[in-house]
Amino acid sequence: MQNKMWLGSHVGMAAPDYYLGTVKEAISYGSTTFMFYTGAPQNSARTPISSLKIKEGRELLKNLGFDEAKLVVHAPYIINLANTIKPESFEFSTQFLLKELFRTASFGIRLLVLHPGSAVGGDEKEGLNQVVKGLDLALEEDKSDVIVCLETMAGKGKEVGKTFEEIAYIINNCKYKNRLGVCLDTCHINDAGYEVGDVDGILDEFDKTIGLDRLKVIHLNDSKNEKGSHKDRHENIGYGTIGFDVLLKWVHSERIKDVPKILETPWPSKDKAPYKEEISMLIEGSYIENWRDSL
Ligand code: FE
Ligand code: FE
Ligand code: ZN
């Protein structure tokens, strides 16, 4: 018997079925976990929690034997705690993070992935310090047990959190360390300059710098760009510079077998999700050449 694998993808949440539809979409791909946004990632309009069919979605999850501890919410991009140039942006971001923590807990979910942010026109060290401050402000007020999982970034522009050291700096300086974890994105670390094919080497370094017990989520993506490019453009499994064999090693590594793995790969066309095929190849461990052509 094969161990249970926690593998899924990013899924949508839309009217009229909202969370019930989210769960059904995940099931249609053969997923054992999933990740979603609780509202549009690029704006602040939010459907009230009471309209999101959370009870119906959770009922279905329970009947199917899903483990809610493996489910993930992604915080919207509009949160940027590292912007030291505009005080109103920091204030907005802290308040929105607080609301997002509450919304995540309302689904019975404990893992919230957050981009540490971008220092835009400011100093990166100051940006990092401000992320610490924003996390402290939000976590001081929030009463849930949701873990904020800081995502490893590609280092595009002035993005902070592009090295394990920067992520460790944020965690070690935060007052509420017990509420912090990490989301490792394979495309982002490749683009940031890490040797993503050396899974054990990277996990050793992660363990030494941050502590492997902090690793709560893996984003499993191929990359359109070379190692160290600082680009952040995801590619379908097997179509990028990382390749199927390396991503397969991440999926099947014993050391991170309990960590949920989420695909955020692009849709080949507007009505064709790639996830069912990607998930099945990664579970089976065998690659189908040109699989996108048959979608
Ligand atoms: Fe992300
Ligand atoms: Fe990601
Ligand atoms: Zn990305």
Structure description:
This protein is of the alpha/beta class. The protein is 36% helix and 13% strand. The protein is built from nine helices and ten strands. It has an eight-stranded parallel barrel with strand order 1-2-3-4-5-6-7-10, surrounded by five helices. A two-stranded antiparallel ribbon has the order 8-9. Helix 1 runs parallel beside helix 2 (54-63), helix 3 packs across helix 4 and helix 4 (124-141) crosses helix 5. The chain is globular and about 50 Å long. The relative contact order is 0.13. The structure holds fe (iii) ion (2 copies) and zinc ion. One fe (iii) ion is lined by residues 74, 113, 115, 151.
Summarize this entry quickly.
It contains nine helices and ten strands. It is of the alpha/beta class and 295 residues long.
List bound small molecules.
fe (iii) ion, zinc ion
**Percent helix:** 25-40%
Measure the end-to-end span: 30 Å
- Average per-residue pLDDT, rounded, comes to 97
Task: Spell the H/E element sequence.
Answer: EHEHEHEHEHEHHEEEHEH
| Large-scale geometry | globular
Low-pLDDT stretches are none
**Biggest beta-sheet profile:** 8 strands, parallel, barrel
Approximately what portion of the residues adopt beta-strand conformation? Answer: 5-15%
